[in-house]
Each structure stands twice: as structure tokens, then as C-alpha cells.
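Task 17 of the worksheet. Students: predict the tertiary structure of the chain below and write it out as C-alpha cells. Keep your answer in the requested format; marks are given for formatting as well as content.
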Amino acid sequence: VQLQACGGGLVRAGGSLRLSCGATASVEIFTTMGWYRQAPGKQRELVASISGDDDTFYSDSVKGRFTISRDNVKNLMYLQMNTLRPEDTAIYYCNAKLITQYWGQGTQVTVSS
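Model answer:
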């Protein structure tokens, strides 16, 4: 299984971006899919996740601003990011869990103040 993330870019504070993560397998097979991010000098952290039952989790830092979703027909997972802040600047990675974990290659999000 391979994951491919895209949609990152440079945006001003207050702006929006939508990240996409494509899978080479049906996204329905994964027990959980999620987005992680890693800022320079910091550990990778979980931003949001969605289960097979569409239960969602958000970290406190993005709750109310980001929305995770999944399209089982297109085999895509999304992260809609609104009201972006400079502290959201990081490389964002998509992740999928089945018996093992799969990672996408990361997409850079840069939010200028």
C-alpha cells in the first residue's frame, strides 16, 4: 500500500488549504487514517484521525479549525484547514493503519504572519 499526500503550500495567516491523501488500496480497509505534522525541531504529532466508523479525533490545537474526511469511492482522505496560523507551519503526513502503519511522503504547509 502506498499513500500520496498533496495540497500543501504557502498561505497567509487566516487562510485555508485542503490536503489530500490518495491510497493505492481502498481506504475502507484501514481501521484508522490520520494526519500528522512535524514542525522543525519538534516531534511528529497527531493532528486528526478518522476511524472506519467515521469517528473523528482532533488535537486541541486544531479543533474547530480543521476537518478530516474520507471519500471511500475516490480512495482519498482530506484535511480541510481553515483559519490557519503561523504555528500550523509544518510538514504534514498522512497515515493509515491496518495491521501495520503506512505513511505518505509529506507535504509542506507554510503559514506566514
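Marker's comment: The longest strand covers residues 90-97. The CA atoms of residues 4 and 22 lie 5 Å apart.
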